[in-house]
Design a protein that fits this description.
Length: 212
């Protein structure tokens, strides 16, 4: 269990770092770039980082859920499945931004100026809807379980609510901070466990020594 906890903590902290970094970079690029920025290497690297963040976030979500499956209960399962689906869809959007949009920006830049509509708009609504709903439900399950600090669970719920704007910056930051908070908690638990076992073993040995 300690290994699972340690890996979950590492994944959560890594995901938080990648998501926050990509959100800040996206915000900076959005403020400073000109109309042709979609065709630049900076655009690809920025969304490549965001894609890595979403993939790591999915792994972190899975590690937290399966490491606390019993305490999270049925609500946790519903939140996990829904949040996983939403996270995969957001990752798909970042893949498109990283690898397809630069080509469109080079060959047909006018397409990027078209307002979203039709199937693209429907897809975006499904993506942010599943992402937000899933993380809110999972956050509620975390809060009810008592397995993590309640303030972190509350922030996870708030981050899920902000997920309705997940395709815009910097609205993934609250969720990332909450996940990082959970990761830090798991890291402390995994670090404390060996010390507790060592202390317990020492006490048992000391208790078994004959008195002089």
């Amino acid at each position: 269990m300690t290994d699972i906890t340690k890996r979950a903590g590492t994944l959560c902290l890594t995901a938080a770092t990648l998501v926050v970094s990509s959100e800040l970079l996206r915000l900076a690029v959005g403020l400073t770039s000109g109309p042709g920025s979609a065709a630049t290497l900076t655009h690809t690297l920025t969304y490549g980082l965001a894609l890595a963040g979403m993939c790591t976030l999915l792994l972190a979500l899975s590690a937290v859920y399966f490491g606390n499956q019993r305490s999270l209960g049925v609500l946790g399962l519903v939140g996990y499945v829904t949040a996983s689906a939403g996270t995969v869809l957001v990752a798909g959007d970042w893949w498109f931004e990283a690898f397809a949009v630069p080509m469109i920006g080079t060959e047909a830049p006018h397409v990027l100026n078209l307002p979203p509509g039709g199937s693209v708009l429907v897809g975006a609504m499904i993506t942010v809807g599943l992402f937000a709903a899933g993380w809110v439900v999972f956050g509620v399950a975390v809060f009810r379980s008592g397995a993590f600090p309640r303030p972190a669970a509350v922030l996870l719920v708030i981050g899920g609510m902000c997920g309705i704007l997940a395709l815009s910056s910097p609205y993934q930051v609250p969720l990332a901070v909450a996940v990082g908070w959970i990761g830090a908690t798991l890291a402390r638990v995994s670090d404390a466990a060996p010390a507790a076992r060592t202390t317990g073993s020492t006490s048992r040995v000391a208790g078994g020594l004959p008195s002089r």
